[in-house]
Write a structure and sequence with these properties.
Structural class: alpha/beta
Oligomer: single chain
Distance between the termini: 20 Å
Strand order of the largest sheet: 1-16-17-15-12-9-10-11
Shape: globular
Number of strands: 17
Number of helices: 7
Length: 303
């Protein structure tokens, strides 16, 4: 088990963290947002945070029934556009992400996932150039949000299926695809568990599967998703979809009550071909060398 540090991204920077907040640069704009894991003191003063921040997120009372996160409002300290674009470059992959301020403090990208995106790029390259090359590896991205992993997969030659239950998020992902000069991602608006069960019945196989399940959620037809209730069944079905010879598998868990050991135990109980496993915490490091954990991961690969 180890900390998976986010590789350097020129367009992103975690400037400071502490007092349950984080100060980040996304492209040309700096945002201050709540962060429950940042239990230490800030390195910079509140005055410096106020001066640097383009916008600051403030929580409001009450929680949304579909999310454990508190809603809030962005206070525009300096004029912010409705949307802006952030470049992403890592290895031979170059992408663009549309960013926007949401009422749940998110902006459209999770920078800590860049470590997993590098993993995806590396594994797809090996699949395409190895002893038994696959011209177009098949990859499934579940709970795919605005499509970071989908874009990485497509940019590296995969036949990618992108599944999310929210139509607006699929539209956002499509904008990211077009801005990045990509095409032909398969979009599926559906409950993730329903989708993988149907794929199992069809006998489908994938060379890569990426899961990023939330703690709570709803499918397009009102299907209820609760992580601790649904994870075991979801993983059983996903593991049946893995190609037996060449595959990679990534599971991310953002719920603070779940550890990488839980993910490891569920996977190993249901799959006897786990090769080269890695697990631990996804970590961002601010400019003062403070390490901020932002979820756990479990992944493995035959290549």
């Amino acid at each position: 088990m180890y900390n998976l540090l986010t590789p350097t991204i020129s367009s992103y920077e975690l400037i400071d963290s502490g007092n349950y907040e984080k100060l980040e640069r996304f492209g040309d704009f700096i945002l201050a947002r709540p962060e429950p894991q940042a239990v230490w003191d800030k390195s910079l003063s509140d005055e410096v945070w106020q001066r640097k921040a383009s916008a600051i997120f403030k929580k409001t009372k009450g929680r949304d029934q579909l999310s454990p996160e508190e809603r809030g409002e962005w206070h525009n300290i300096k004029k912010m556009p409705e949307k802006w674009y952030m470049d992403y470059a890592q290895g031979k992959t170059k992408l663009k992400f549309k960013l926007s301020l949401s009422s749940f403090k998110h902006v459209g990208i999770f920078p800590e996932q860049a470590a997993n995106w590098k993993f995806i790029e590396d594994k797809l390259t090996l699949m395409k150039t190895g002893e038994s090359p696959i011209q177009q590896p098949k990859v499934l991205n579940l709970f795919a949000y605005t499509g970071g992993a989908s874009l990485i997969s497509k940019a590296n030659g995969a036949d990618i299926t992108h599944v999310d239950s929210v139509k607006q998020v699929i539209s956002w992902s499509r904008e990211n695809m077009e801005a990045s000069g990509l095409a032909d991602i398969r979009w599926v608006i559906e409950d993730a568990l329903k989708f993988v069960k149907r794929e199992v019945k069809r006998g489908k196989k994938y060379n890569g599967i990426i899961l990023d399940p939330p703690a709570y959620g709803r499918g397009p037809d009102g299907e209820k998703w609760v992580l601790e209730e649904g994870l075991n069944e979801l993983l059983k079905n996903c593991l049946e979809l893995l190609d037996e010879k060449q595959h990679f598998f990534i599971l991310n868990l953002y719920s603070m009550g779940f550890s990488a050991v839980i993910a490891e135990t569920i996977v190993k109980q249901n799959y006897d071909n786990v090769q080269n496993p890695e697990m631990g915490e996804l970590v961002l490091q601010d400019s003062f060398q403070k390490k901020l954990p932002l979820g756990v991961f479990y992944r493995f690969s035959t290549v």
